[in-house]
Design brief:
313 residues; mainly beta; Beta-galactosidase, Chain A, domain 5; 8-stranded antiparallel sheet; globular
């Protein structure tokens, strides 16, 4: 175990997975990240009775459940959500892939560990780790998880190594936050105007629905969540979406100031996903990859950096 100042880091093997843990001894918070997919599998606070109180669905449990959603906080990219028929064309080059892209299936090298006033696990995926059929251009990715106090900052950095052409990517984070029951949980949107993108069968229809929030709970019924709410904040007072669980008294505040879209979803088990998204799924009438709605453009030899943060109460 390595420690400096208030933070501790350790790496360990469990059930065949390579895991890295950061713990803030001052606040009692920790994160654990799996090298498979650079996926968060625990965000937890140590209680006074020395028990870990987890904020993710199945927090800290590696083995998949017998049924239902099997992840904790999937990293999505280099495309997001779904491709029609699990394939698309990118400027004439074919991309094949299942839900949420290929990052979730990559084994990442051990991260760089930075300990100071805050603590960071920095994961890197080199462009040569990506097969041409997964993504046909040379683009590397760095993903930073920074823990301080009760806040987790998540930063995506994409570097286009192509010298003479731009690159297009969409990406995001798919955290499932544990709730005692869907009926006990509420999603609080800031006051303002929103646009929902309708996606029957998980693909965009081209239809949108505008709605307003007075700064209170969303009016969806639990049974509506499997259809996914793909939402854009159009004109809002602030960009902090809150998830409240009245039974556990957990509160998660997700700052989406730099995020163009977010998704709300659950499979009706005791979790709700609030997903920062830089891009949207395919339309039913599929467009070329580079014209997907919300796709992010990286100039030749350029870099883009995008972030979101989560605070846990």
């Amino acid at each position: 175990m390595v420690g400096r100042m208030r933070f501790q880091h350790r790496n360990f093997e469990q059930e065949g997975h390579r895991l890295h843990e950061l713990m803030d001894q001052a606040s009692g918070f920790r994160i654990i990240v799996d090298s498979l997919g650079a996926e968060l599998i625990s965000i937890a606070r140590r209680r006074a009775d020395d028990v870990w109180d987890g904020y993710l669905y199945r927090d800290g449990i590696i083995s998949p459940p017998a049924e239902g959603w099997k992840n904790h906080a999937t990293v999505m990219g280099y495309f997001i959500h779904r491709l029609k028929g699990e394939g698309t064309l990118y400027a004439g080059d074919e991309i094949r892939g299942g839900n949420h892209g290929f990052i979730r299936n990559k084994h990442f090298p051990d991260p760089d560990v930075l300990l100071g006033e805050d603590a960071t696990l920095s994961y890197f995926l080199a462009s040569n780790q990506i097969l041409p059929g997964e993504y046909p251009r040379k683009v590397s990715m760095r993903l930073n998880y920074t823990l301080t106090e009760d806040c987790l900052d998540v930063v995506f950095v994409f570097q286009n190594e192509e010298t003479d052409r731009p690159a297009h990517v969409s990406f995001g984070l798919h955290p499932g936050f544990s709730v005692s029951a869907l009926e006990n949980a509420r999603v609080i949107l800031p006051k303002g105007r929103y646009r929902r993108y309708l996606a029957p069968g998980n693909f965009l229809s081209g239809e949108t629905h505008s709605f307003e929030s007075e700064g209170g709970p969303m009016s969806f019924k639990p049974f509506e969540l499997p259809d996914s709410f793909l939402i854009e904040a159009v004109d809002v007072d602030n960009h902090v979406v809150r998830l409240l669980d009245f039974s556990s008294r957990h509160e998660v505040q997700i700052d989406l100031s730099e995020v163009p879209f977010f998704t709300l979803w659950s499979d009706l088990r005791p979790f709700i996903c609030v997903e920062p998204c830089w891009g949207l799924p395919d339309h039913h009438e599929q467009e070329p990859f580079e014209k997907k709605l919300g796709i992010q453009l990286i100039p030749a030899k350029g870099t883009i950096t995008r972030r979101c943060s989560m605070r846990f109460r």
